[in-house]
Amino acid sequence: MSHKNKEECTSSSSSSSSNVQPSDWLEDEMEQIPWPPSSSSSDALLNAVQSFFENTNGNPNDPSSNQDDLQSVIHQQSTSLHPTLVSIRRLLHRYPELMFQERLTSQIVQRVLKEMGIEEFSVGWGKNIYSKYYDRNEGGDVELTNDITTEEYDGGGFGIVVDIGSGETPCVLLRADMDALPIVERTPLPPDLTEEQQRQQRAHQFHSHHHGKMHACGHDAHMTMLLGATHILHSLQQNNKYLFPGTIRIIFQPAEEGGAGAKRMSEEGVLVQHPKPSFAFAMHVWPTLPSGTIGFRSGPMLGAADMFTLTIEGVGGHAAFPHLVSDPIVASSAIILNLQTLVSRGMNPLESGVVSVTQVEAGDGAFNVIPAKAVMRGTIRALSDQSLLELREGLVSIATHTALAHGCKLSLSSFSKDHYPVTMNNDMLFPFASKVAGLVSEGGEVTNVDPTMGAEDFAFLAQGVPSAFFF
Q1: Do you find a cis peptide bond into 322, omega within 30 degrees of 0?
Q2: Burial call 66-99: b when 16+ CB within 10 Å, e when fewer
């Protein structure tokens, strides 16, 4: 994107933020949040931060660092925000939205920022350039309410960027994702509640109000944590001047769940807009780690990933006469089995890969008719981009030849518009990031974790700037 286009994006985004008028019901929801008494920090926190930068130049490894004092007062400040953040997290959880549809989510985040006294931020980030490819109705019908139009949902662009600090370098980027998943929430409630109490709990506390959509991947928690950090960072001012040098760029990013929202924001200039970030950080809640523990490693943290669709065409007919048809279901079954050799026989045993077929569709409901077509969908994953591309080539080859062996053909194979690369934690950044993360991790140090085949579009940001991604 040219510099001119970036300016236009920021200008139009800033003007549109002032046009967002939350509906009355959202105002009612916001009034239920127990806001802290003041947005200003305690003298203890201000003194600790000022001392930290004056004595150590921000280096936690400096022997003169007062990191224990700083850690203690930040913990106190965070604890005072706990009721506020719980309410915000539950509000976000009640109204999950899928990728490129995060309009209400964006309104909530903007409203919270304004409650913190932050009026300057830009919106309109993360536009969907593949509106015909990503179906806005995937995972359930979208209810077009108020002045929401089909074009707005197709277009996306609900990301938010906030710069806190001097507006100059050095600049550090912090990121949280915003979108939910097409999942029906069936979160259990305590068994001792009456049926009416359970209904009220679901309606008013946390349960998703958007049927077929759920914050099952923790993005509601990510936004809430970043909002809490934003509140504390914004409060570190004396005489309208921030106590820390440089700028913190805070981004709320849409469309992580397959839409490559981070890549869209990078293309729109979030990594080159002045002040240009020197480092980027993000984290993800992780169910296998105890609460209060930070997981981290150097090098590959999450795998590269792609999605695929395979369409197998045969010749349909009556199930009583299988010799007169070319059965795409049998062909698909053979393809699924043969695909397992991609990893077991096609990859170096010292490397890792995953091939999973997760959906199979065939037939129109008649129990005695062999259909003419079957569709398979799934995912491939690896710990290197090159291995992922090799898996993709092997998948098409096996599907093509196995289908032919069964008298069918592979009529269509498609993949993601943007496959996710490996999320790499910068080796040079690892010692510093481990030290800082250890300050808030139980035991005073991070837990070393193995890489996982989960995937993250934060990887696109990590390709452009040295980065660290935590669990």
Answers
A1: no
A2: bbebbbebbeebbeebeebbebbbbbbbbbbbbb
> What whole-number distance in Å separates Cα of residue 413 and Cα of residue 396?
7
C-beta neighbour count of 65 within 10 angstroms: 18
Region class of 406: left (phi > 0), else alpha (psi between -120 and 50), else beta: alpha
CA angle 195, 200, 205 (to 5 degrees): 130
Whether 326 and 316 have beta carbons less than 8 Å apart is answered as: no
For the cut 70, the answer to whether the pLDDT of residue 57 exceeds it is no
Token readout for 182 is: 């097409």
> Span 209-215, mean pLDDT?
92
Distance of CA 411 to the CA centre of its chain: 33
Burial class of residue 421 in the structure, from the number of CB atoms within 10 Å of its CB (0-12 exposed, 13-18 middle, 19+ buried): buried
How does pLDDT run across 365-410, given as a tens digit for each residue? 899 999 999 999 999 999 999 999 999 999 999 999 999 999 999 9
Question: Does residue 72 or residue 390 have the better pLDDT?
Answer: 390
- Alpha-carbon distance of 129 to 264, in angstroms, equals 8
Q: d(Cα 416, Cα 336) in Å, to the nearest integer?
A: 20
Instruction: Name residue 356's beta-bridge partners.
Output: 379
Closest CA to 76 of 186, 232, 215, 191: 232
Q: How far apart are CA 343 and CA 329, in angstroms?
A: 23
Instruction: For residues 368 and 321, give the distance between their C-alpha atoms in angstroms, rounded to a whole number.
Output: 10
- Measured from the Cβ of residue 339, the count of other Cβ atoms closer than 10 Å reads 23
- If you ran DSSP here, which 8-state letter would residue 427 be given? T
| Higher-pLDDT residue of 153, 322 | 322
Query: In the chain, what percentage of residues exceed pLDDT 70?
Result: 83
